[in-house]
Amino acid sequence: VRPLFFEFVTDVNTLTIDAQFMWGDAILVSPVVTQGATTVDAYFPADVFWYTISEIDYAKKVGSGHQTLQAPQDKLIPVHVRGGRIVPRQASGQTTTDARKNPMEVLVAVDQTGSATGFLYWDDGISYDGAGGVSSHYMKSEFSYQMGSTSASLAIRFSYEQGPPAMNTLDIIEIMGYPYTPD
To answer: pLDDT grade, residue 60 (50/70/90)?
Structure first.
C-alpha cells in the first residue's frame, strides 16, 4: 500500500491526496472516509487509462483529473486498475492453505498502445532459507500482453529455484479495453 505520489512523482496534484491509495503499482483504491457519505472525490493521474473494476465493466475507462464517484453503502468501494498492467488474482479461502488450492486468474488492463505487463512472485508458503526468511522454493512469473490489429497474445515466462512450488491452473483471463467481443 502506498500513496499516489510514490507512483506519480511528477504529478504535483498527488502530493496532498491522503484519502486514496495505490495497492502495488496497478490498483487505485478510493474509499469513503467521511461517515454517511455516498460519494467520493477521487483523483485520477493523467496519461494513464483507468478501468473501473468495482463495477465489472471491462470497457469503461475513467478520464483523468478530479471526479466525484458514486459510493453508496450497499455497493463496493470504488476500485480502479491502471492501464498497462496485468494483475494476477486468486480467490480467497478460509486459510492460506485453502486459498492456494484455488485456480489463478489474470486481469489484463491494456494501455493506449494495447499492451500490458505484470509480475507474480509465488512461493511454497512453508520453506525459508533462514537468512531473512525468504523462501528457497519460489517461482517468478512475468506476464506480457500485446494486442494487434487482428489478434492478441498473452505470454507468461516462469523462472524458479529448487523446483517450482505447486500451483493450480490459470482458470480465467479477463481483458479490459479489448475492442472486440471474443469468439
So the answer is: low
Give the model's pLDDT for residue 131: 57
Confidence band of 146 (pLDDT split at 50, 70, 90): very high
Rounded to whole angstroms, how far apart are CA atoms 114 and 84?
Answer: 8
Angle 72-106-96 from CA coordinates, rounded to 5°: 80
98 vs 8, higher pLDDT: 8
Is residue 182 within 8 A of residue 163, CB to CB? The reply is no
CA dihedral 50, 53, 55, 59 (to 10 degrees): 50
Model confidence band, residue 177 (pLDDT cutoffs 50, 70, 90): confident
Using CA atoms, how far apart are residues 154 and 113, in angstroms rounded to an integer?
Answer: 15
3-state secondary structure the chain: CECHHHHCCCCHHHHHCCCCEEECCCEEECCCCCCCCCEEEEEECCCCCEEECCCCCCCCEECCEEEEEECCCCCCCCEEEECCEEEEEECCCCCHHHHCCCCEEEEEECCCCCEEEEEEEEECCCCCCCCCCCCCCEEEEEEEEEECCCCEEEEEEEEEECCCCCCCCEEEEEEECCCCCCC
Q: What is the pTM of this model?
A: 0.83
Burial class of residue 105 in the structure, from the number of CB atoms within 10 Å of its CB (0-12 exposed, 13-18 middle, 19+ buried): middle
